[in-house]
Each structure stands twice: as structure tokens, then as C-alpha cells.
Amino acid sequence: MGQFGHVSLSTCTISAMYGRGRAGSSAVRVGALALLTLIVASLFVLFAAVPNAEAQEGSLKGTLRLGRETVEGAEISATDADGNDIGTATTDVDGKWEIPFSEIGTYTVTLDAASLPEGVGFAEGFSESVEIEIDEVRAKAVAFKLDSADVSTTLEIDPLWQRLLSRAVDGVKVGLLMALAAVGLSLIYGVTGLVNFAHSEMVTFGAVMAFAIESLWGGLPFWIVILFTAVVGGVLGFVLEGGLFGPLRRRKMNNISLMIVSIGLAFVLRYSILLFFGSAPQSYEHYRIQSATDIGPFSLPGKDYWIMGVSFILLVAVGLLLQRTKMGTAMRAVADNPPLSQSSGIDVDRTIIAVWIAGSALAAVGGSFLGLTQIVEWQMGEKVLLLIFAAVTLGGLGTAYGAMVGGLAIGFASEMSTFWLDNDLKFLIALIVLILILLFRPQGILGVRERFG
Amino acid sequence: MPANSSESHASDARPTARNAAQMAVRTAQPEPGSVKPDAILTIDNVSRSFGGLKAVDVKRLEVQRGVITAFIGPNGAGKTTFFNLLTRFDDPDTGAWNFNGKPMQDQRSYAIAKAGMVRTFQLTKSLGKMSVMDNMMLGAKNQSGESLSRALLKGSWRKQERRVEAQATDLLGRFNLAHMRDEYAATLSGGQRKLLEMARALMSEPELILLDEPMAGVNPALVQSLLGHVQALRDDGVSVLFIEHDMDVIMGISDWIVVLAEGSVIAEGTPEQVSQNDVVVDAYLGTSFAGATGDGARSSEGDEGNQQ
Amino acid sequence: MSSFTSLIGGYDISKLLGDSLRAGVNVQSAAFALGAVGLNLHYGFTGLLNVGMVAFMAAGSYGMAIIFTQGLFGGSILLGILGGLVFATIIALLVGIPALRLRSDYLAITTIAIGEVMRISFRSRRLLDITGGPFGLPSIEDRSADISLADRIGRDWNPFFSVDDPTKTFGFWRLDFDAKTLWLMIIGWTLVVLCSLLVWKLIQSPWGRVIKAIREDEDAARALGKNVFGYKLQSLIIGGCIGALAGIVRTLDSGFVESNQFKPQTTFFIWTVLILGGAASKWGPMLGAFVFWFVLVFVEEALRQVIINADDMVWMGLEANDVGRMRLIMMGIMLAALMIWRPQGILGKKEEALLDAR
Lengths: 453, 308, 358
What we know:
The complex is a heterotrimer. Chain A is an alpha+beta fold. Chain A contains 13 helices and 13 strands. By secondary structure, chain C is mainly α. In chain C, a hairpin with a 2-residue loop joins strand 5 and strand 6. In chain C, helix 3 packs across helix 11.
């Protein structure tokens, strides 16, 4: 209910700010706002009223730790409600264990105390058996809290500010990745007027390609994997523009038809990836597990620092390229006014090809990073499509900087929202942002006002 | 009005007999913002900027009822933007204007058209995949069959539909388009599209029609016919406001000329008064007023011909 | 029936043709035809880029199913259907009011977004008691009144059902259907015809003239005094309600709702149906649905038989379980290829498609 009050308050503020500008259509907007508020409010009420029980992907699994150390060789077994054994597992060198199950129900997971190292027992308030209710055939994490006479363990959860901080850091990370993915979509729209629905598949493509090279030659330096991903992403962009969209545009096909072609293309790409890659989620073998590195108040796996650092550098580089180089200036000019830039001597076709290459390469790199922080799967692009669209609209369709800001904002906001709300609801947040932007500032935060219907 | 008689209207440079409204407007002061004896449109402080540039900044303007008023000015003077603002196809930063005494600045564009202030576009907007006849019939106002609740009750709009069709047939005849009535509008030539758009606007029986460069892109032979139609409109009692960046084309038919430069009204007056105005001559530096009408038509064709 | 069976070198031609024809006329095909009729009003006539038709289908299906399972309004099916239509109307307003004033791209972005958000929200565990969360509503039944939707439609209200012979089938060859399927096919295709005629009558009216004018050039319509936004909203609502009917027909057939039935791909199946049949044509959606399902199942079945007959059951690297994936790839190719080489589809007017290029 708290959220409900918050939402209506902020939307009212916006309408009050806006009300001064235009009187003509305010009645419709107020009506729309009332409707939106009503629907959002009822959704929140619905979601708040029903108790939450969140499930994640996989099977019964967990990592057994004692303080910061992992525990190897502990035996864990699981039984179903009728007491039948469904499986046992022994923790590996990283303390990880996993027991698959196939049906929903209530399971009891037991850690054999005898298999634990000497002197290690269960933390206060935790026993050797955990009862888990499974109502979806997905993964479920099971935690055992251990304690030992030698190692002092802290049972209390991290303080609020630290949890907020870690959410915020995740938010920045996801935001940077969304920005990488969104820049290309927005620039391509800017120079061609095409909303490319296949852009999300570039993200998947990048992640899958990085996975492929990484599993072929394991242990390659990180930067080579990124470089390779960028190159194959760029090549895909080149092929799509040079072999498909460019020729069609020259046949004077309108952008609406081209958009439908891009939808068809998205399907071809997505299910081709499924065909070759398979439906099982994967993760990069050599970067899968990393222990946290502390820098100041942050405690993150090393790869996260890299991802954020490289993403940030890439975005700054894109900004500098657009601002300082001849090609960048040409891109901005074409996005601004294609006929004018053509007549002022800019090679529009070449500029468009360059935008496709750069945009696809960025999306592919963004995808490989996304795979690095989460998992690699054939649907990963489709899953972030909504966030990317919201980001691009928020920033202003067609503007590169807008897409960056929008990506950061949407990524950050949606990640932060999971602190208070269900994981699924982050998409709802993106949709609400999208609708509010369309109602009140359709040109986006960085777009220039033009005439809209 | 048959087409050949409108040709004759255009052929003599100045109508011999002026009607009352034409006489009345000549009594107005030839200065920016001057009061008109019977204004159909009064405009106050309308402005619009793009970035830092003020595209339109009109302090005060009155448009006389029942006459042809021309907006002229060099390219980039803000004429089309001003039109867009008045018809709310663009949002003004500031400003208020009354049409027939009713404030229009807060109305949506369709409501302004419904009120009787109808515009055409510089780049014609013929509805390509609809027949010429459908284009025309779309223009008629207050069609009951256009409301969703009555659309399926054919009986409720059949009679009106026939009336609208008769009106459209009549107008198509006057605009020499009768033979094209069942063709797709996209198959018309550029000049024919201009005619269609003007005829379509007339279907709504407007009180004030705003024509945005109706002569642009039209071949010289048709220009005379178009000018004739514009004059015929005035003779039927319609107030006409039209944009032209070439003075020569309109000197002959306008009753009142408003000169815009850099978004502001710099002069007003009858054609004679404006052509002797020093400010206007400065603004048009390098442009000859005395040039033949034919030159003007050719140059506007050259500018816009490739857009069709 | 064996006289129809013909095996040629390990290929079952009867199954190939029979299954394809069956898919072409089945309830599923009727549901897609209905969706395409709604989309035809949106895209074909009004020019609205609705790429979230599945949101309206979900509104219809879930709306009806929830009203029925919760026993609201006495668990009436008809009121459930009405509730589905009301839900679809609300969705149309929610999407239309912000997005219809803007360029068409924005409607595309908003519609695909609402479709996905609805799907994700419906499967949320927080809505377990209402939508069934991730499990959906596996059997749509009103527990308090002890009736199920499937029984109501399949038995109580079914003129073809007889208690004496509940497994009686109708038809011949591979085209024989049980009583419930036959009844729903009749309901489904009747709805398709009725909705097609409704849309066509609307388009032939002065209202339809304004709608087509908006498709061609909104500013022109606006300049002639037409409230473009209002007309677009009306079109979005009517087409959306027809889309909701599509969802309802599909749910009546399957007897359950589940969020995975409403993935974005459903929308693009419908797009392909419409483009294939011919946008802005009267019977295009209907013919498109038949041809689409016929071709899809034909190629799928042919591929399956080729793989089964190949050495080691692998053909050009494809195995039997790849066939389902291939069909979605094929659908993508079909949609793109149609748009490129035959934008007018089967029944559309070629000259109209050509006018676009001008």
C-alpha cells in the first residue's frame, strides 16, 4: 500500500508541473492518468495482498560455506513428502552441491552432520534438515548455516545500507549493460527510422559467441573474448545492413514494412540460436566462480569490476567518437536530417553501415557481459528487450546519449526495485516508466521537442 | 462555377468591381498589427522557438473577413510554422488567437478545422490508396455515419452520403477532376493533387481557408487556373489566407498582403502599398517585384517540382 | 479408412496431407483467423502497429477464466466472455491513451511491452489464487458450483454431444473430429465470418473512410476536422476485443489457461497470418489462417518424415526434436519474405501495395 501512495503522489506532481504548459489536451491526460494510476494501484494492491514466494531457476542446490571458506565433501540428501529418497550429493571443492528433482511438492533436505569437518556444527537456530516447498519445477537454493569453534561466523544479516549498496551496484552494472545494448538500437533508429526488433537477438548472439570461443579455447584473456565478440557482432550488423535492410531501403520499402521484416528476422535468429546452442542455460566455464574482492565498501567478484569498467569506457568512447570524429559527426548529422546531410556531402549509406556495425558490436559486447554476470541462454535477449525499449524511449528514440542515460536509469531503477518488489515486477516498473514518458515527455529526456500527433 | 470562367478571373490582373469587404479592407492602416473593419481572425503574441531560434514572433495581427490575405516573406520567414501554430499542428510557446470571436489557442487541430478554419499543406497530403471520390467525401463536415454508433446503420446515413457525393461531384467538376473520380489519388499528377486538396478542403464549407503555397510544384498552365479558383472562393464569400514566397504570383489577386521576415510581421497593406514599402524592399533585397508573373511561376516550380 | 492410407517409400502421404488439412480447419486456426481479423482492423485499415495482439488474447482468456473459476456472476460463461472483452477494452485504453497520440513506432513499443508485462505478471506467484501463477488454471472450473468450462461447452451446450455415445466422432479420413472439437470449430469459424463482416461493414461506412484516411495520412484527416485520436482509440478497442475473442476461442478449445500460451510469438503468428492472407482485404485473415496452418504443419510433418527415414534419424544435422524449432525459424522467414516479395498477400490488391513505393 505504501507504493500505491507513492505512485499517485509522484504522478500528480508531474501532472501539476505539466498542467501549466498545455491546456487543450489536459482533460484527456488527466483521464489517462487517473486510469493509469487506478490500474497501477490495483496491480500493487493485488501483488501486495498475496503473499510472496519467489522461485528461481534450476534444481535443489546450494553452496556450503563456513564463514568465507567453502566446505568440501559434505553429504547432502533429499527426500520427498512420502520419505522417498530423491537423490544425494557431495559438495565439491567450491562447496557446491545440486540435487535434481522433477516434480513439485515438499522436500526435506538433510546435511549429514557426520560428513562435516571436525569441529564444525550447525549455527544456532539452524538444524541439519531443511524443509522446502517446491511449487514450480525450477531451481531452489537451500542454505545451511554452519558454525565452528575456530571460525567466528556472523549470523546477523548485512546492515540495510550494505544491502542497499549492493543492489545499487548491481543496478549500475545492469544499467551500463542496458546502455550498451540500447545505444545501437537508438542510433540505428536515428539514421534509418527503423525500430529494429532483432536488436535483442544481437545481445543473445554476442553472449553465445563469447560462450563459443570461451569453451573452444578456455582460459583466453578476457580482453580477447571481448574483442572477438565485438568483431563478430559488428560483422553481423554489417551483413544485416549490407545484405538485407540496405537493399530493401533502396527498394523504397517503408519503415513499417521493414520493422515487420525485422520481427521475422528476430525469430529466425532467436530460434537458430536455440537450434545450435540448445535450450539449456550455460555459463562461462572459466569465469563462473570468483570469490569476492573488496574495494572500499564494495565486495564484488573481480569480473564485475571489469564489466563495469569496460562498459563505462566503451560508453565514453562512443560519446567521444560521436563528438570528435568525422564519422561520429556524420552519424549525428544523418540522424538529425538525412536529406540535408546527403546534400551537404555526407555519404549517408556509408554512415548507416557504420552505425549498424558499431551498434551491433556494442549490443554483442553488452550481451557477453550479461552472460558473464547472469547466464547464457537463447532467450536472454528477448528477456531484456522490454528494458531496452523502455530505455530508448526514456532517453529519446534516435539519440545516442539519451539511450545511454535511459539505459542506466532503467537498469538501475529496475534492479533497485527488486529490493522492495518481486523480481518479475521490475518489468512492470519499466512499463510504467514507458507509459509515463509517452504521456508527458514523448521526445524522451534528451530528445528535442518536435511535433507529435 | 465553371472552370473556364475562373480562368477569365485570373486573366485580368485586377478585378474591375470590388465587393464590400474588399473595399473595407482598403480602409485599414498599412502598418503591422493594424485594425481591420471586420476581422475574422485576430492574433496576439504568438511565438514559437526552435532551440534558441525564434521561428515565429507575431505581436498582433488581424485578418479581414471575405477577402484574400496573402502571407509573403523570404524562405525561412516562418510562414508555414505560423500556419502550423494557428491550426495547432504545432504547439506555440505563447499566444492567443480568436476565430469568429472564439479563442482557438487551446483547441486541438481537428476542432479548429471543425470550427471552420481549414488548411491545406505545402506538400500535398492526398490519401493515395483511396479513390479521388473518397478523398472528397472525407472532407464533408458533420457526417452522422462517421460516428461509430451509427456506422453500421446504413439507413441513418445513406441520404446524407448521397448529398455529400453530389456536392463532391459538383466540386470535382469545377476543379477539372471529374474524370478521375474513381482513380486512386496516388495516380494523380502533382498539380492535380494540389487541386484535389483544395477541393477536399472546400467540401467542409470553411469560413476561412488557409492555403500553404498552393502554387508550389504546379506547372505554369495550372497556376492561372489555381489562382482563378482562389479568387472564385473569395467571390463565394470564403475568407482566404494563403502563403506564397514569391510576390509576383500573388500581387494580382491579393486584397491584403502581410509580409513576414524572421518570424515577425514587418509590413501590411494593399499590394500597391506593400510594393512601395522600403522595409519590404530591404527584406527582399535582390528580389525584383517588377519581374514577370511567368518567372515567379517557373521559379516556384523549380523549387518544389522534385517533391511530387 | 485404410483406403486413404498410402505409404510411398516410408513416407505417409495420407498423414502428411490429412494432418495439414486438419490443422488448417481446426479451432486453433479459427482462433488465429479471429486474431488476424482484429489485427486487420488495426494494421490493415487503420495503420496501427499493434505488435502485442497477444495481450488482448490474454485479456480475453484470463478474463473469462478468472470470472468462471472465481464463481463471479454465478460462473456464467457468457458473462465471463463479456468480462474478457471489458478487460481487453481496459488494456486498449491503457495502451492507446499514451501511445496513440505519437508516431506509430511508439505504439509498437508499448504494445509489445504490455503483452510481456501481462504475461510475466500473470505468472507471478503473488497472483497464485487468481491466475494460478506459473501453473495457470489447468482446468477452468467453478469449484463451488462443480462445473467446468470444458463440460459446459463440450457437453451441456453442445448439440453434437450425445450421452449414449460420448466418444462419437464426425467426419471422415483424418478429418474426423469429436463432438466438442466440431462444435468449437463451428463456433470459431462462425465468429470469424461474423467479425470479418462486421469489420468490412464498418470499413464501408463513412466511419471506415475516416479510418482509412488515418492510415494514409493522419494529418490530412486532422486538417479535415476528424478527431484522429478518438478514431484510433475506437479502432484499437474494437480490434482488441476481436483479439480477445480469439483468446477466448482458444481457451474454450484447450480448456485451460497458462501464461506460456501468450508468448510474443503468438502475436507474430497472427501477423504472418494477416500478411499471408492479405492486409486490408475482407477474407484475407480467414484464408491466411487456413494456408498458414496448412503450410506450417505440412512442412513440419514432411521434415519429420524425412528425418525419420534418414540414416540414424539425422538429416542435414537435424534431429526429430529440432522440428519444432525449425517451424519457428520458418515462420520468421515466411513473415520477412512475404513482406519483401508479396506485401499484398494472397487476397490483397497488388496495385495498393505498389502505391506504397511512390
